[in-house]
Amino acid sequence: MAKKLDKLTPEQEARLVEYREEWLRIGTSTEPADRASAEEAMTAMYATIGQPAPAFAWVPSPKAAQCYIALCQAQEKLPAVSLKGALEKVSAGTGIVSGAPQDVLRVLAGDLGETVNSIVHEELKGLPAWPWHWGAQEGYWIGFYSFCETLPMEKPYDPEMSRRLKLHAQYARAAGWCWAYEGLAIISDRPAEIHMVENPRRPGTLHLHNPEGPAVRYRDGWTVYAVDGVRVPAHVVEHPELLTVEAVLGEQNAEVARVMRQQMGDRFFEQMQARARPIHKDTDGAGQYRELVEVDWPLADSTDNVARWMRVSCPSTGRVYYLGVPPRVKTCPEAAAWIAGFDKAPRELAFAKET
Amino acid sequence: MRHPLYTRMYTQAALSRHVNDRVSVEALLTSHTALRTPLKVLLDDGIRAGILRTLEEKEVV
Predict the structure, then answer these.
(1) Is the CB of B18 less than 8 angstroms away from the CB of A157?
(2) I need a labelling partner for A327 at 20 to 30 A (CA). Which of A53, A212, A242, A307 fits?
(3) How far is the C-alpha of A286 from the C-alpha of A337, rounded, in Å?
(4) Which residues does chain A have within 8 Å of residue B44's beta carbon, measured at their own beta carbons?
(5) Are A180 and B3 a contacting pair at CB < 8 A?
(6) What is the least distance, in Å, from the CA of B33 to any CA of chain A?
(7) Which among B20, B47, B48, B18 is positioned nearest to B32, based on CA atoms?
(8) How far is A274 from chain B (nearest CA, A)?
(9) Smallest Cα distance from B51 to chain A, Å
(10) Which of A6, A16, A62 lies at the smallest CB-CB distance from B35?
């Protein structure tokens, strides 16, 4: 058994911070991709597995990559259309780089006819093709092993593994996601914007956050919305004035519902308080106040035309949640039991302790 | 074709074995806490997963 490096020195611990900052910068870079460097690294990776250098198709976002892949898949279903010709057209075309995904699709499908267009639309409804490299977002492991390589371990990395690690680092520094096929590598540019803040639930870490616009935006306009690290539909951020109590209480994901309520601001509580009738209130096993409330809701799946929620707050974050329960639930412990998966009448429930 | 994903996973596994055999649990824990975990939370669990989930949504283009 090799002798292990026992404990990090203060200098090595300081270097940890330097590596974290460096890879955080790389992982959240919004600079345009360094195409030459990315292609060089990817070509070397292909060579590592005995493959010749691929053709490179650069796209502005992962969504554009999906359009590109869907088009190629559609063409396989239409052998009368030359895949090779289309790929050359796409690779050389300017639309794929500068246009929005819809524009890209229109440009490509316009050349190939409405039949292809409709098939591509069907393909896009399915799961996306899985990228083969996550680019800059692989920084967490690349940065870690790059740091470890600087440690005075009894034996250094195998030279080939060290070379491959450097190739992955080179690619991650240069570009976004890559879909690698035989003879063809489709590479997405990096985002143009990434918004993040410190995660209060995990001090020292960051998460995506922008309550006023996209948390991630690519150069073709494709966006990802997230608030407090919770991914949400675009309208929750772009049009909070259209959110309603019904929409919030009908949302299945409790975290998304919380963000929706947060986006509504005081309007949510005004609407809720005006409509909610208290049914039962107590404190749970951890001493947290909770309340079961009822709201008239003709659309609810109930013969009584009412819906019930239990209002609870998280003891560590203080965040308030409304958790939906069936209208037959009459007490907070019964609601808690139902939420936990115990679907019994109140008299059958006997709690020794709630935690 | 043994595609690049193979080389990535193989590289990660080899490096992991190398490091785990030569660095103590205490030093690894320090390294994970200060370096790997914060990056993983943001880059992998946050940005990568957020983009992928959005991509998976059944959007009619």
Answers:
(1) yes
(2) A242
(3) 15
(4) 134, 137, 140
(5) yes
(6) 9
(7) B20
(8) 35
(9) 6
(10) A16
Using the structure block, give the residue that is written with the tokens 């080939």. A160
Query: How are strands ordered across the β-sheet holding A223-224?
Result: A193-194, A216-217, A223-224
Torsion of CA B16, B18, B24, B29, to 10 degrees: -20
**Cβ proximity of A12 and B34 under 8 Å:** no
Tokens standing for residue A45: 């990776």
Whole-model pTM: value is: 0.73
Question: Can you tell me the distance from the alpha carbon of A28 to that of A191, in angstroms, rounded to the nearest whole number?
Answer: 8
pLDDT by residue (tens digit) across A223-259?
Answer: 999 999 999 999 999 999 999 988 887 888 888 988 9
Q: What b/e readout covers A247-273, taking b as 16+ CB neighbours within 10 angstroms? A: ebbebeeebbbbbbbbbbeeebeebbe
Inter-residue contact A221 to A100 (CB < 8 Å): yes
Q: Which residues, including other chains, have CB under 8 Å from residue A113's CB and lie 6 or more apart?
A: none
Model ipTM value: 0.89
